[in-house]
Task: structure prediction
Amino acid sequence: MNAHEDVFRTLREISWLDDLDDANLSALAEVAGFRTVAAGEDVFREGAKEDFLYIVMEGRVALELYVPHRGRVRIFTAEPEDVVGWSSVTPVVRQRTASARAVIPSRLLTLKAEALRDLCDRNHDIGYIVMRRLANVVASRLQTTRLQLLDMFGHPDQGASRG
Amino acid sequence: MADVQIDLGATVILGKAEFDRLLARLRALGYTTVGPRVQDGAVTYGPVERLSDLPQGYTSEQDAGRYRLVAAGHPRYFDVTPGPHTWKQYLFPPRTTLFTLRRADRGWTTESRDGIAPRFALIGVRGCELEALHVQDRVFLREDQIDPIYRERRRRLFILAVNCLRPGGTCFCASMGTGPRVGGGFDLALTELDEVFLVEIGSEVGRTLMADLAWESASAFLQHAAAQGCERAARQMGRTVHVEGLPEMVMERLEHPRWSEVGKRCLSCGSCTLVCPTCFCWDTQDHSAVKCDQTRRDRVWDSCFNPSYSYQAGGNTRPNVRSRYRQWLAHKVGAWKGQFDTLGCVGCGRCITWCPAGIDITEEIAALQQEVRS
Amino acid sequence: MRVGATPSGARRAAVDRDALLAPFWAEITGIQREAEGISTYWLRFEDAALRDAYGFAPGQFNMVYLPGYGEAAISISSDPAEPGRIGHTIRFVGNVTRAVSRLKVGDVVGLRGPFGTAWPMKEAKGNDVIISAGGIGLAPLRPAIHHIVRCRADYGKVTLLYGARTPKDLLYTTEFDAWRKADIQVNVTVDRADESWQGQVGVVPLLFYRFRMEAQRSVVLSCGPEIMLRFVVFESRARRVPSDRIYLSLERNMKCGQGFCGHCQLGAHFICKHGPVFRFDDLEPYFDVEEY
Result:
């Protein structure tokens, strides 16, 4: 099985790509590849120019923010089938909003950001599916972040549950 | 009279001069007789020993947030509609000591409340109040849980009910089906005419008591006069409520804009719950000696308007007046039905009279019943 | 002194039907620190007959009494098959619980109970079970987990979704391995990580995205802050779990724990009697009414 078939097979198993037919999926596979990262290895750094969109296939990738005087603060972990690096595909935000680092050895599916954007522009079926998924990713992150902000497990004298 | 039998359910005449003997008989049987008296410008409940202790000649003017006792000069003793007191204080006392603990070598020893529960004879229970008592029976004496304090006092209770002939400005018992005629469940029920009492025998205890007094048979004419008096009273209610479908309606309108509106007027003072004959919420209070060698656990009346009522560490599920007023009303005429298979409100009107903001439950219900115009 | 029947059948309850709120006395036989501000207190009734006869079902609670301070409703967090040794995992947040935190082994507290409804262990037989807990919410679910471990064959796939504020706030971490060995999948997350945490970071509702469930043969049991419960319900229903297969444990200010005092009412329910464990369809009329 060649590299393209390998990528195609992996893409075919991702549930949120179910709506894409084989022809479109194959076009997507053209701009995709794999990357393996070791535990503790950076996937990308905050502020860097985006280059790939990542889908975690195995392992765990943490999103971290650098906070001066505190160091890197882990704010979220991406598990298998989660998307990491959505900023590479959104029209306006073009740099990384957080750093990504593998917590345990991980295998990622990579999609070349510029090529993916071009593909979405040319092929609106693919474009819609990808953007729809990204809208969900961002919405879900926002929801999670809001709940984290509310500090619902915080001591009753602090946090959101304060009367 | 000793030769003639009184039957259960019969109505006889008792001269007003005989009434003191009735009260004395009750006291001889071990009852503390309590009834209406004038005190501090209102009619309240307390010990009564003779007919002359009762508020003869008085009526009360009642409206939203208004109560005035008027010396009207008529000859009757039971014509004043109820004031701020209810009979529930005798079965569900405002404060009770549950137990006292004393420190022992390890832990504590318990001194329970001792003593036999008191026997009360309630003199002058109106239809709405009798119904309220039955509502409280459902609350405190449930099949799967019985309040032992209520149970012991209820067992020993004597009820002398009164058919109401002069309803008050805030009364709506007719709408609620609780008066002005009393329903069942009394020992004796009076209808007061100018010269005499008509007395209906409601129980064996009542019958035995009457048998010893100087009663006479009641003519059909007098009984008819009494019945007419009640019917007239039913048409003189100060307020009305449309009861049909009330519990379902209020439970469906928990987001009605009226709650915000009344929430601005309500002071959350809890007066309505204090004067309500069916409210049953209570709180516990722990009182300890300075040396910490003794502590007492009391049960006291509480109110859902109390801001700390729904307080839990760090939060309050009903943090504002709107939510607390809604809880009270939606419970009283809504959720109560699901809990006890009856409405909580008996139409006595006390909450209207004694609300310092003049909030009228019948008005609030009517506003909720209005279709919300979008 | 008379006592009544408990849902556990022949077991006795520590409830005096003739003396309202009268406490039964229990000695603290052990104190186990679980996390910052949270410890489990192991209690044993002083009366030997009561010790032998007391029993509870998973999800029920006792009223713990500290003379001079008052009572607190605390879920029972120990194994229902060992009712002679009653465990209460207590978070020190209020007047009474803060006083509890100053007690020592050998001290005596008042205890009344058990009260309330239980997790639907019988109804859930033959189904997959998803236990979704947040923070101290794992405490009233631990007896359910004990029961499942004991009767593992009665249930299908069992998944624990558990989250707390930080890794230091996770309860019962030393038991996770035993639970995994009993074929319970344990998925843990924290809202905020620390330097050493290698596990998941994110909120409990997110855990619903990280495993596959078969809605029609699943039962969801959940306990935690009410805001978390709202999202657990949302995620469960998004995955088509019907309302009569979702169970929540609710908390309200309780004074008597028996359905008398009125404090814990929610609509027509007394949470101490008709709850704290509710089937979600019984809560639906009230759940979305804010501040009710």
